[in-house]
Amino acid sequence: MPKYQTxxxxxxxxxEGTMAFGxxxxxxxxxxxxxxxxxxxxxxxxxxxxxxxxxFSIASPPQVDGHLQIVTRMTGSALxxxxxxxxxxxxxxxxxxxxxxxxxxDTAVPAVFIAGGIGITPFRSMVHDAVARQLPHQIILxxxxxxxxxxxxxxxxxQVAATHRNFKYIPTLTQADKxxxxxxxxxxxxxxxxxxxxxxxxxxxxxxLAGPPGLVNTIRKAVLEAGVGPRRIQAEEFEGY
Length: 241
Prior knowledge:
By secondary structure, this protein is of the alpha/beta class. The chain folds into 2 domains: 3-98, Beta Barrel (Elongation Factor Tu (Ef-tu), domain 3), CATH 2.40.30.10; 111-237, Rossmann fold. 21% of the residues lie in helices and 32% in strands. It has 5 helices and 11 strands, in the order E-E-E-E-E-H-E-E-H-E-H-E-H-E-H-E. The chain has helices at residues 78-85, 120-132, 154-163, 192-198, 213-225, and strands at 3-15, 18-24, 36-40, 53-57, 67-73, 91-98, 111-116, 139-145, 167-173, 206-211, 233-237. Strands 4-3-6-1-2-5 form a 6-stranded antiparallel sheet, with helices on one face. A 5-stranded parallel sheet has the order 9-8-7-10-11, with helices on both faces. Helix 2 links the parallel strand 7 and strand 8 (139-145). The protein is globular. The chain starts with a strand and ends with a strand.
């Protein structure tokens, strides 16, 4: 797997407890929306058993020339603490890109993206890539979080849905009563009944699931119960982050 030298150039909070980190895109580093890379931070100021490398989905689309963005929950690991504190311009290494969790080529087949929490990162890249390339895929994004403060890119997805008729955004908050901002949308867990209310036809789409393993497995079961065949389900679990 190719290794590239780059540096940290951006650091911004995108939701409560969630940070985005930007890196210069190395020359000849070409990726497909939905892929990931392995980040290595040499000489990081903090250390733990997980070491100085971690795999992250690329949250920015390929059209953002010269810039790679990752987004992560700040769980207190040594690598994340180090990224939060080192100076901008700090050298890093990346391995990749890797992964086949990417949008299918057949534009006649709809896509249903179902994300929990930080599982939104590959979908952000895929949605913006589809918009930039004016792809005719019909895309539904179901996005589950506990509260609005912890929902990364919520306003961004609302804007995309308002201006692109091929994209439908369905957020749900499972602890909406703990949000400081008023919420009048869905407040349920994603299950078979939820999906049947929001998706008219289960025979055509390919379903993409991403998030913590427990959530992914629960939703996979719900999708199977709704009659979707295993070959039309792709899943990516975000474990240990």
